[in-house]
Amino acid sequence: LQDFDKYISLEPLDVDGYFHRGKVNNRLRNYKNAAKDLRIVTETETKNWTNWDYYRKAISYNLLKEYSKEILWLDSLILKNPNNEKLYYIKAIANRKLGNLELARQNLNKAIKINHDYKKAYNSRGILNLKSLRTKESILDFRKTIEIDKTFFDGYTNLFFAYCLKHWYFLIGFVVSIFLFIRRKGFTKFFKK
């Protein structure tokens, strides 16, 4: 934070310093200070708009939890960069936070269409499918994340939960049978063996 404070004191008109200090404050849970810095970023007009300016504003709105404004800025950036799968992914997350699950799914489908190996998009689409109780589709998405990256822990964890949701009655029966077995044998006797 001290480095960004020094940078801002030297370059008070450069929005990047406020943006990065706002992100650091947000991570440190200094939400009030983060909001001040990020508000400066969102209210500053730029003469020559670059992709970074659009992205910075969109992320600032995300951190301020103003997701509809974030989507507007992402749409502006997507018009300039229609083949950037990460922009569709970020837009999907914002739509999900607004409760627009179908729009989020469409954005994730676009991200996957652009980059067939985008594991985060498959993982997020699998989570959306789980929320919609589409367990077969979610299992396929989580399997794809693992196929893309065998070390992606979230893919394994989410696949486990998808199988549990699909076969919840087996899981409940298994847990109840273990509980009854332990209760009948006695807790200490069971764990001594």
Describe the structure.
With 193 residues, the protein is mostly helical. 80% of the residues lie in helices and 0% in strands. Helix 3 packs antiparallel against helix 4 (51-63) and helix 8 runs parallel beside helix 10. The longest helix has 18 residues, at 168-185. 33% of the residues are buried. The model has no long low-confidence stretch (mean pLDDT 81).
Task: Detail the topology: elements first, then pairings.
Blueprint: H1 2-10, H2 15-27, H3 31-43, H4 51-63, H5 67-80, H6 85-98, H7 101-114, H8 119-131, H9 135-148, H10 153-166, H11 168-185, H12 187-192
How does the major sheet shape up? none
How far apart are the termini?
A: 55 Å
User: How would the global form be characterised?
Assistant: elongated
Order of helices and strands: HHHHHHHHHHHH
Sequence stretches where pLDDT stays below 50 over 5 or more residues: none
How many β-strand stretches?
0
Content of β-strand:
under 5%
Indicate the mean pLDDT. 81
Question: What percent of residues adopt helix (DSSP H or I)?
Answer: over 70%
Key traits:
mainly alpha, 12 helices, elongated, 0% strand, 193 residues, single chain
Short description:
The protein is mainly α. 80% of the residues lie in helices and 0% in strands.
